[in-house]
Amino acid sequence: MSTASESSPAVPSMKLQRWAQAEVSREGFKPQPLASHEVLDSERSHSSGKEPSGMRYEAYISLVDRQIRHTWLYFLYLEPSNFAAVAYPSYIAPCSSNGLVRTVLAYSLRAAAKSELLKHSAVIDVESLYTECERAFGALSDLLGDDRYFFAMEGPGLFDASLFAYTNVLLDGRLAFKEWRMVQILRKHVNLVQHRRRIHERYFPGC
Hints:
Elements: H1 16-25, H2 38-41, H3 55-78, H4 80-92, H5 99-118, H6 126-144, H7 158-170, H8 181-187, H9 190-203
C-alpha cells in the first residue's frame, strides 16, 4: 500500500466504512504474510525436475494453506500485541494519517481475519491452532529431511515458495513481534530454518 499524502482526496464520513472495507478487500480478502513468493516464480523454470501432484502433494500443501495459514491469521491479526507492533504499522498506518480512518481499517482487517477463521470452526480455539501448527511444521520438517528443497528438487518450486512466504516473515528479526509462540515452534525445526535462509540468500541477498 502506498503512503497516503495530505493531497489525497478526503473520504466523506458517510462513505468511510465502505471505503475502509474496499481498501482491505479490493483484491478479495486473503490476509497475507508481509512477503510473498512471487519473486520466486520467475525462477521456477530453472529448477530441475517437476513437483509432484496428486493426493500426497495436496495433503502437504494443505498443511501450509490451512494449518499454518490459520495460525498465522491469529498470530498476526488477532493477537493484540502482534497486531499493534507489526500489522498496524505495516498495513494500517501507511494508508492514512487520519486517526478515524486508521481505526476503521484496523477494525475491518481484524474482523475479516476472525471471519476467515470462523469459516472453519465454530469458535477460535487458540491452543488448537498452535497445536495444529506444531504438527504441520513437524510434518513438513520430516518431508524435507536432509534435502535442500522439497521433493528433492534442485531448485525451489511453488511448494518451497508457499512455505517461505510464512517462514521468511516469522524469522525476520527486524519485525518486532511481541508474542513469539509461532516463531518458537518454527525454530524447533532446524532444517526449515535453513530452508528459509537458503532461499532468502539466493533471492534476497543483502536484504
